[in-house]
Input
Amino acid sequence: MDWHKRYLQQAGWTRDLRAYLFAKAGIQTARRILEVGCGTGAILSTVDSSAALHGVDIDPHALAQCRVNAARAILTRGDGLALPYPNESFDLVFCHYFLLWVNDPLQAVREMKRVTRADGHVLALAEPDYFSRVDAPDELKPLGAWQAESLKRQGADPGFGARLAETFFEAGIKLEETGPVQPVGNEANAEEVELEWAVIESDLAGMVEEEEIQKMKLSDAAARGRGERVLRVPTYFAWGRVTH
Ligand SMILES: C[S@@+](CC[C@H](N)C(=O)[O-])C[C@H]1O[C@@H](n2cnc3c(N)ncnc32)[C@H](O)[C@@H]1O
Output
């Protein structure tokens, strides 16, 4: 599975939202910006700003790829639950498909707040709620439950997106705006479908019988052919201001 390709796909879904929120959060005047859980750099490589651009991630392999994809960024290996920066180091701190992966998302948001200067901005751009995933027709509904179970087994909280806004509130960040991500660029063309199935097959390997997975894949293709396929994972964003 080429995870960078998947992250680029997800980056496509939030492209318009990022442009809107980064502008609101003062990206043009920011001097220091941080992405927490920057992964392979799918987002960092697109940030259009003259600010000093920092990325932190716990995974050295992802950081090695990020070094290539976002060559301008200053990268540090570190834990989002104990960020390796002094208080109030950044004007803008953001994350993207990150908080669901940490075992204490409130602590991660508190850390994002701590390293943001007073009157600076914290953005969680995309956190999914797989428990509310919508699949149609009905015969494809097991896919949602399987994927949520697989994410749990991988250490993620599949339903975190539904608690994103309250987590900002609990962390003491003044919420400016929150809501669902309206995806763009995820039209189900052949490449999108192939990538979606690569993720499903990778996630479900060893958990669901191969024959069951292939049955679903055929049903999915048939439903798409009839124009009846619906697949939606409600995903949420939150933008807050830090008052310290
Ligand atoms: C789904 S990827 C998203 C990467 C990137 N934000 C993007 O959207 O392309 C989640 C990233 O969070 C990182 N991560 C998970 N737990 C972490 C932690 N405790 N501290 C820092 N990074 C962490 C993983 O290594 C991975 O690179």
In short: The first strand starts at residue 32 and ends at 36.
